[in-house]
Amino acid sequence: LVELGMPGPVLARRPSRRVLVGDVPVGDGAPVSVQSMTTTVTADVDATLQQIAELTAAGCQIVRVAVPSQDDADALPAIAAKSQIPVVADIHFQPKYVFAAIDAGCAAVRVNPGNIKKFDDKVAEIARAASAAFTPIRIGVNAGSLDGRLLAKYGKATAEAMVESALWECSLFEEHGFGDLKLSVKHHDPLVMIEAYRMLAQRCDYPLHLGVTEAGPPPQGTVKSAVAFGVLLGEGIGDTIRVSLSAPPVEEIKVGSQILESLGLRPRRLEIVSCPSCGRAQVDVYRLTEEVAAAFEDFPIPLRVAVMGCVVNGPGEAREADLGVSSGNGKGQIFVRGEVVRTVPESKIVETLLEEALSRDWSQRC
Ligand code: SF4
């Protein structure tokens, strides 16, 4: 296992090959990237580019677009040219769209071998075209669309069946000298998904794209993804992640980014340390926490800001925070590094926290 050059406790990473998705490296110790997928009709170029811009602003590093029709394929050159982040074309049924995506300048193509008819016959041609254009390919196996041959053999989409499908497709590309591949074996059950990725990680050295498919709406989908990614990334497995939520895609990026921050796999941005509230609370902790989080969301330095509902356990419990507030009797005790520096009326808490944050030099903190 290789180690990432990050401060603090460091998770070891599984060694792998590296692919380049546009300018984003995936695998071989590269920072784990966060990706999502647009929900617009791809043929609607303006709407798709608008959503890609929103995803980019939220921190998305790679974006995937669905290509179910010729109109969508025709839109790919404009989208690939104007997107600020690499665009991956997601092809399910028609090999001809793979060639269109490569010609369009997409940064990568995702194919689902279980869904592409006569895919195996086309591998030589696809490998040639992708190789000439330096376009990596993701072999994306999904439990819901497993190859019929493997379903018959295993009875259902087991971890073994998904891994066999992925490695079989890899072998077809390898026969044609093409190894610019990344793999995914997604299942809606986090336990099966974890087992599949562990198996895959042992049997190949391709970079892995993690995903719990059809994870559902938040909080269910959020928790399923966080649990599964946490286990796998904790073991060094996983090079790029996509959180699948029945929610706007920007939410997927927020969750994915926070998973990586929680594991120390990317530098933390704002961290809110807030108490859960209890019978001792003398302020609406939930409301105050939301206001503080909104006020600090774009603060240029990644601070740890505490919001505590009473003065009993305020500064003491939150002494690891850079600054914070503990409330009582309509007032807020503002503390910096565990020391109370001011007491202000409740209505002034948020602006005072911002004033204190702006007036201090945070460069020396650890
Ligand atoms: Fe309760 Fe105070 Fe602890 Fe918040 S900080 S949970 S209000 S004791």
UniProtKB/TrEMBL annotation:
Enzyme class: oxidoreductase
Keyword rRNA processing belongs to the record: no
A GO biological process held by the record: isopentenyl diphosphate biosynthetic process, methylerythritol 4-phosphate pathway
Free-text comment on the cofactor: Binds 1 [4Fe-4S] cluster.
Binding site for [4Fe-4S] cluster: 275, 278, 310, 317
Ranges where the IspG C-terminal domain occurs: 271-356
IspG TIM-barrel domain sequence ranges: 17-256
A Pfam cross-reference name: GcpE_C
Coiled-coil stretches: none
Pathway: Isoprenoid biosynthesis; isopentenyl diphosphate biosynthesis via DXP pathway; isopentenyl diphosphate from 1-deoxy-D-xylulose 5-phosphate: step 5/6
Cofactor: [4Fe-4S] cluster
Reaction catalyzed: (2E)-4-hydroxy-3-methylbut-2-enyl diphosphate + oxidized [flavodoxin] + H2O + 2 H(+) = 2-C-methyl-D-erythritol 2,4-cyclic diphosphate + reduced [flavodoxin]
EC number: 1.17.7.3
Entry GO MF terms: 4 iron, 4 sulfur cluster binding; 4-hydroxy-3-methylbut-2-en-1-yl diphosphate synthase activity (ferredoxin); 4-hydroxy-3-methylbut-2-enyl-diphosphate synthase activity (flavodoxin); iron ion binding
InterPro entries: Dihydropteroate_synth-like_sf (IPR011005), IspG_bac (IPR016425), IspG_bac-typ (IPR004588), IspG_C (IPR058579), IspG_TIM (IPR058578), NO2/SO3_Rdtase_4Fe4S_sf (IPR045854)
Keyword set, alphabetical order: 4Fe-4S, Iron, Iron-sulfur, Isoprene biosynthesis, Metal-binding, Oxidoreductase
Function: Converts 2C-methyl-D-erythritol 2,4-cyclodiphosphate (ME-2,4cPP) into 1-hydroxy-2-methyl-2-(E)-butenyl 4-diphosphate.
HAMAP family in alphabetical order: IspG
PANTHER family recorded: 4-HYDROXY-3-METHYLBUT-2-EN-1-YL DIPHOSPHATE SYNTHASE, 4-HYDROXY-3-METHYLBUT-2-EN-1-YL DIPHOSPHATE SYNTHASE (FERREDOXIN), CHLOROPLASTIC
Annotated protein name in UniProt: 4-hydroxy-3-methylbut-2-en-1-yl diphosphate synthase (flavodoxin)
Organism this protein belongs to: Amycolatopsis cihanbeyliensis
Gene name linked to the record: ispG
